[in-house]
Design goal:
Blueprint lengths: L1 E11 L2 E11 L5 H11 L19 E4 L2 E4 L14 E4 L6 E3 L2 E2 L2 H9 L19 H8 L9 H5 L1 H4 L10 H11 L9 H6 L11 H5 L6 H18 L1 H9 L5
The protein binds iron/sulfur cluster (2 copies) and FE2/S2 (inorganic) cluster (FES).
Length: 249
C-alpha cells in the first residue's frame, strides 16, 4: 500500500481550480478507481462520467497529466506517482462541472453526415456479395467507441475552435467507414470538402496517437478521403471529364 495524490480540476462552466486529494492506492488500480475512491471518501460531489469500466463505452474521457486518455484504462503503475497526477476535463468541448464536458456538438455533427445508402441487392433473394478485403478495410473504423479523445486533441477544434467548419477526426473516420463501405453508393466527397472541412486537417497525426482503439485515423481514414477530394476537385483531366459528363460527377 502507498499513497498517491490526485490534482483534480473542480468547478463549474470553466471557472474553478485544481484541488489535491491524497488516497491510499493498491496494485492494479486505474485512474477511474482513484476518482471513485476520492468521490466516496473526500469529494462526494465530484462530477464525472463513466459506465463500463472496460474501455468500451467511451464516457470516462479526461486529460491525465495533460494527455487525453480513458480514466478506466489508465493504470496507476504507468504514471509517475512521486508527484500529483493531474486529472482535468477535455478542453475541446464546453465545460459543465468538474470532469464533465458537454459533448453534444458531436451528436449534431454526426447527423450532418449523409447516411449509409446501399446499392440494390446483388441477388434475387435480396442479398449482396462483397469481397472479404473490402469488408476488412472498413472493419477497423467500426471499433470507434466515440470517446472523442481524438476530437479533444485535434488543434483545429481544441486551439482554433473551428467547430462550425470542421467535423474532426472522429467523424472523418465515420465518413470513411461509409465512403469505403463496399455496398454504399452515397457521395460525400463534396460535403467533405465544402461542409466538413477536411482541408483543415494538416495530418499532424495527434488524433491517431490518442485513440484508445488504435484506429489508424490519419493514414487509413483521413488521407484516403483527402485523396478522393483531390481526385474529384483538383485533377485537371477529371475536371474536364466532369464538365462534359451528363451527370456532372
Ligand atoms: S491529423 Fe488532422 S484530424 Fe488528426 S489531430 Fe491532426 S489536424 Fe486534427
Ligand atoms: S476514433 Fe478513437 S479516439 Fe476518436 S472517438 Fe473513436 S475511439 Fe475515440
Ligand atoms: S468507463 Fe467506459 S470507457 Fe471508461
Amino acid at each position: 500500500m502507498a499513497n498517491a495524490t490526485f490534482r483534480i480540476w473542480r468547478g463549474d462552466q470553466g471557472a474553478g481550480q485544481f484541488r489535491d486529494y491524497t488516497i491510499e492506492i493498491s496494485e492494479g488500480m486505474v485512474v477511474l478507481d482513484a476518482m471513485l475512491q476520492i468521490q466516496a471518501s473526500q469529494a462526494f460531489d465530484l462530477a464525472m462520467r463513466w459506465n463500463c469500466k472496460a474501455g468500451k463505452c467511451g464516457s470516462c474521457s479526461a486529460e491525465i497529466n495533460g494527455s487525453p486518455k480513458l480514466m478506466c484504462m489508465t493504470r496507476l503503475n504507468t504514471l509517475p506517482l512521486e508527484r500529483p497526477v493531474t486529472v482535468e476535463p477535455m478542453k475541446a468541448f464546453p465545460h459543465l462541472r468538474d470532469l464533465v464536458t458537454d459533448v453534444s456538438w458531436n451528436y449534431q455533427v454526426k447527423k450532418r453526415i449523409k447516411k449509409f445508402k446501399p446499392r440494390p441487392p446483388d441477388a434475387p433473394d435480396g442479398t449482396w456479395r462483397m469481397a472479404q478485403k473490402d469488408v476488412d478495410r472498413v472493419q477497423e473504423f467500426r471499433k470507434c467507441i466515440e470517446c472523442y479523445l481524438c476530437q479533444d486533441v485535434c488543434h483545429v477544434l481544441r486551439d482554433h475552435h473551428m467547430h462550425d467548419q470542421f467535423i474532426g477526426p472522429r467523424f472523418l473516420v465515420y465518413a470513411a467507414a461509409l465512403e469505403m463501405h463496399p455496398l454504399d453508393v452515397e457521395d460525400r466527397i463534396s460535403d467533405l470538402k465544402e461542409q466538413h472541412g477536411i482541408g483543415l486537417c494538416n495530418i499532424t497525426k495527434c488524433c491517431t496517437k490518442v485513440c484508445p482503439e488504435n484506429i489508424t485515423i490519419t493514414d487509413n481514414a483521413i488521407i484516403p478521403l483527402k485523396e478522393r477530394v483531390v481526385d474529384r476537385f483538383f485533377d485537371p483531366l477529371l475536371k474536364l471529364f466532369r464538365i462534359f459528363s451528363p451527370n456532372g460527377r
